[in-house]
Amino acid sequence: MVIFFEFAKRNVRLNWLRSLLAVIGIVIGVVAIASMGILGNSLYLSVSDTLTNVGDTIVIYPHTGTVSGGMQGGQSRLSISDRDMIEIERTISPSRAIPVRTTADRIQAGREVTAATVYGLRPDDIPVLLKRREGAFLRSSGGAMVGMRLAETLNLRVGSGVVIGEGGESLRIVGILEERGIGFDINPDYGIIVTDSWFYQKYGNSDWNQVIVQVKDLAQIERVKDALDQKFNRREKKFDILDTKQILQTILDAFNRISTFTVAIGGISLIVAGVSITNVMMMSVTERTKEVGILRSIGTTKRGILRMFLYESLILGLVGSGIGGLLSFIGGYLALAIMLQSTNYLFTPSSLLYIPFGMCFGVGVSMLSGFYPAWKASNLNPIEALRHE
Amino acid sequence: MNDGNGSEMPLIRMRDVRKVYPHPAGDVVALDGVTLEIGHGDFIAIMGPSGSGKSTLLNLIGCLDLPTSGEVSIEGRNVRDLSDDELTELRRDCIGFVFQTFNLLPLLNVVENVEFPCILKEGSRGCEERFLPVLKAIGIERDLFSHRPSELSGGQQQRVAIARALVNDPRLILCDEPTGNLDTKAGSQVMELLMDLNRRGRTVVVVTHDPRIAAYAKRKIEMMDGRIV
Ligand SMILES: Nc1ncnc2c1ncn2[C@@H]1O[C@H](COP(=O)(O)OP(=O)(O)OP(=O)(O)O)[C@@H](O)[C@H]1O
Ligand SMILES: [Mg+2]
Question: How many structural domains does chain B have?
Fold first, then answer.
């Protein structure tokens, strides 16, 4: 009923200082929850944007735990043989298997020298796995593609020449790759891509260091993984089969836990604010005991009294949460501007959602904190309340 | 106010009512076997020394409290059989309380105080027409309407309190020393008002120490140590 709301409003105004202090508590709690949530979520988003290959990839490495894994092919080296490769392709069909040869070597361009990762890939696989920024995709053994970062470091352009390793022929750069970020399979941003046959000629190794499996249907990931496990790891562990979704999930889970933790800290501060609301409301009830007696004597029900006091804590909660929501928007903006140098992630729904979440939590805590005092007031004995001075 | 069924059934019937307040240093027996009937249209003065149980009796009549033992019924309904909400509704619709200390709501102005029971009963609509004639009859000037109780004299506050008690047109008006905080002139004005209300058919019960006030009543009840003597 409007009259009880009016009552509550007037009482808040009458005891404005006390009410203000309670409101400040709620404001701080809401800001803590919402800005922590925004910050955590933005970190999460920025991490998951940086990490590529979300989910659709399985990476196969030779198992590093035992030596016997390599003995299969009659070699002592830990690697994946062409025979294994054929088995893999059969197992995962119709998904695509991309075998990779990897090493690290010295790279020279003009007078600039650095070390970088060298990837040997089958030319057909390159457009599937990587994106081109400039030039063409690598087709034949005479050329190479470079990652964007490496190109920047060595001032490479399409058409430049590079020398891999000590001495040897110069390779022409046919294309520069798009920046890829941190990957779980390969990290070509600071690497150089050559054909598998050139790699074989150069380093004399026909085996593969890893196989990247691109699963066509995301829902099939588990099935493909299980099939590979069945095929190769039944008797003894031959390959490590990693599913990037799982790796990504582990990292993102860690981030999530951190942001949940910070939000929980915000929640604790809101609970402290709730205690101060309870305190304010208890004072209000004690001071107005006589008033409760009068109200009861002229026909106000228990429910009416309950409502009157709940409205009071609702007002405190709404005002506090409103101000808190506004401040946490500003606070989140500033925190992101300082910590991530970008406020883009603030304006995503999953970040902004923390503001109404914090506000609802603030109102909820206020109502909950006000409930006991209100209940107590509504259950006062009318006669005793009237005698109260 | 001459309802047919009321002629046989008294407005209030109390039978062997006891009220005991528990107290660590021995229970206080505030009422010790009171039997009383109040008919429609009565004007009763309850007198007696301080602590004799007058206020306790009035609170029981007004459904503000329940007896420890014995029976209190209002229009034939035993108050024990009524829920808290039903008793509250009775207080709101059928009973008007007037207290010695006025007991106006300090946060509300004159008009808001007077219309409060009406709003409780029917919501905010329609109460405008109710409080105007009541305030007029009680003699509160329009320029006082927006005043808070703290800005009124004792006599004015008591008249506002009576207006509030009347706004839902109750059958029974209960006054606990309504003139206790007023001077003789304001006191007799209040009594004239109550007499007038009684003449219009309302049942009035007044608690007082003052024999001059009691003289306005049709019937006097003398109390002593929780009993009617
Ligand atoms: N809530 C209570 N708790 C304990 N004792 C009470 C309570 N209310 C009243 N009493 C006791 O009951 C007795 C009767 O009180 P009551 O207020 O009815 O007297 P009264 O006749 O109205 O007195 P007065 O003329 O001073 O108002 C007194 O002894 C009082 O101390
Ligand atoms: Mg008394």
Answer: 1
